[in-house]
TrEMBL record:
It is an enzyme of class 1 (oxidoreductase). This is NtaA/DmoA family FMN-dependent monooxygenase. Belongs to the NtaA/SnaA/DszA monooxygenase family. It comes from the Bacteria.
Length: 441
């Protein structure tokens, strides 16, 4: 029996997925771009629209990183505005638990849930570096275990605020036509090692009660945090084998928290390149990869691994013979990808072996090592691949990341979604009104 999948649309953040040089590439600032992607996702009956957020512009060599977007609007502002131009699509955003405060974030999400009639979702993340913390009064660095302690307490506190209003706390005064809160409505008090607050929460309970909780950490702490608290978890695992291992691992953790396997939805991020035939798609995918990683971009990626200035190197030449500088990365600041190379010497060795085996240049190595194309083929091939992954328990669906914004989702919605619907692998219409309804959590 074909299992019905979940689909979400990611408005791309700042990375080498987006092809800025494509004639169809638009603004990451103008509201019309967000509207286009969100409305297309809703037309295709997607579960939700997802907007990532960074708290500081990333730097490399003391300058703003070439692929960063200067001027991206605030996440809550965009999502609240999208609530007015969509009707059923879930609206989710990344909001940091390290440098924000529970009362403020809970009030914003409760407001969004009311404005959207129950379609809000919160991707709870932590921040890993002091560089980002410099933007905040409570700056500094938190070790990974401490970040997740704060995130856990943060979410617990926000949940207490959401739950401080109960059904019936806002009865109507029929004579005056007003609504009057009952005594005690919204009252909260929290005292622990992270927060020392008390007062009265100002926003009544939203249509969902609380926003859908999403989580993106892949570490041991992140997986445990998701098993305990999240409704959905994002993952980077792109192969069937890696996906099945991750899926089985996070699902088995749920029982310890009294939860069932269906209470956590596993959603890998996925890119796609469509063609009329598989051969045409393969040719286009190669073009896209070279557009995503220019020579200049290849050198920037290499510097993140080597932790040294490599601007004098030819991207079409061989990898540097010098080894990476081990220790704190002082070249690239604020980039999460730096954390992926915890052993830069081993990474350099691996890249050199690849280059020697295939006679690859710097740019060609970076293209091969940073490729993000999960699905390449005709609409039928991509639909079958997605169905197979979901039925094989490698995931419950996908967060699609188009390489052109804002119109990159359009061909998928027009050509692949109808095939998924014909196979019974995706809904033909919404059956509920809230994001919880869409996800079944």
């Amino acid at each position: 029996m074909t299992k019905q999948m979940h689909l979400a649309a990611h408005f791309p953040g700042v990375n080498n997925t987006t092809v800025w040089s494509d004639p169809g590439a638009g603004s990451h600032i103008e509201f019309s771009s967000f509207v286009h992607l969100a409305r297309m996702a809703e037309r295709a009956k997607f579960d939700f629209f997802f907007l990532a957020e960074g708290l500081r512009l990333r730097e490399q060599g003391g300058k703003i990183y070439d692929l960063d977007v200067v001027g991206r609007p605030d996440t809550f502002t965009v999502l609240a505005a999208l609530a007015a131009v969509t009707e059923r699509l879930g609206l989710t955003g990344t909001i940091n638990s390290t440098f924000n405060e529970p009362y403020e974030v809970a009030r914003q999400f409760a407001s969004l849930d009311h404005l959207s009639a129950g379609r809000s979702g919160w991707n709870v993340v932590t921040s890993w570096d002091a560089f980002t913390g410099e933007n905040f009064r409570r700056g500094g660095y938190l070790a990974e275990d401490r970040r997740y302690v704060r995130a856990k307490r943060f979410l617990e506190t926000a949940t207490e605020l959401f739950d401080s209003w109960r059904d019936g706390d806002v009865p109507a005064d029929k004579a005056s036509g007003r609504f009057l809160a009952r005594a005690g409505a919204g009252a909260f008090e929290r005292h622990d090692e992270q927060f020392d607050i008390r007062g009265r929460f100002t926003v009544p309970r939203g249509p969902q009660g609380r926003p859908v909780i999403l989580q993106a950490g892949d570490s041991e702490q992140g997986r445990e945090f998701a098993a305990a608290t999240a409704d959905a978890i994002f993952t980077r695992h792109g192969t069937k084998e890696a996906g099945q291992a991750f899926y089985a691992d996070v699902k088995r953790r749920l029982a310890a928290y009294g939860r069932k396997t269906e209470q956590l939805v596993v959603l890998p991020a996925a890119t796609f390149v469509l063609g009329d035939t598989d051969a045409e798609a393969a040719e286009l995918a190669d073009v896209v990869r070279h557009q995503q990683v220019s020579g200049q971009t290849a050198i920037k990626f290499l510097e993140q691994v080597w932790n040294r200035d490599l601007s004098a190197y030819d991207p079409d030449g061989p990898l540097p013979e010098v080894d990476p500088v081990v220790g704190e990365n002082t070249v690239a600041r604020g980039r999460a990808s730096v954390r992926m190379y915890r052993d830069p010497i081993a990474t350099a060795r691996e890249w050199r072996e690849l280059a020697a085996a295939k006679n690859l240049s710097i740019r060609e190595v970076v293209i091969e090592k940073t490729g993000r194309q999960n699905f390449i083929g005709s609409p039928g091939t991509i639909a079958e691949s997605m169905i197979d992954l979901v039925n094989s328990q490698a995931c419950d669906g996908f967060i699609l990341v188009p390489h052109v914004t804002p119109g990159g989702l359009d061909p998928f919605a027009d050509k692949v979604v109808p095939l998924l619907q014909e196979r019974g692998a995706f809904r033909t219409d919404y059956t509920g009104t809230t994001l919880r309804d869409h996800l079944g959590v």
